[in-house]
Amino acid sequence: MTTVEILEAARALIAEPEHWCQKALALDAAGDVRRPYSRLAVRWCSLGATDRVTRYKGIRADNALYSALGMPPEGIANFNDSHTHAEVLDLFDRAIAAEREKEVAS
Fold first, then answer.
1. What pLDDT is attached to residue 83?
2. CA Rg, the chain, in Å?
3. The domain containing residue 40 runs over which residues?
4. What pLDDT was estimated at residue 103?
5. How would you classify the pairing of strands 41-44 and 26-28?
6. Which residues, including other chains, have CB under 8 Å from residue 18's CB and lie 6 or more apart?
């Protein structure tokens, strides 16, 4: 998977507000904390969505992904927890656009 594919898939997981969360990597339908890749998880934060997307593909979210989002992992978590759903999706959109530009330039 490319960084763009990871970002697009993670964004798709949290595209609807009811599938996004704050203050936890992932939650189940009852609101209990779960691991992002749990079959019971139905809501994810930005990092949790990324973990979910990459977990079973043998890919780890690495520095390239954090670079695409323009901040370190703890910055992403803080942004997710202190901003609106729309602002989080906008962050993903900007990162996806920037990564696409990098691909074209290569």
1. 96
2. 13
3. 3-105
4. 84
5. antiparallel
6. 43
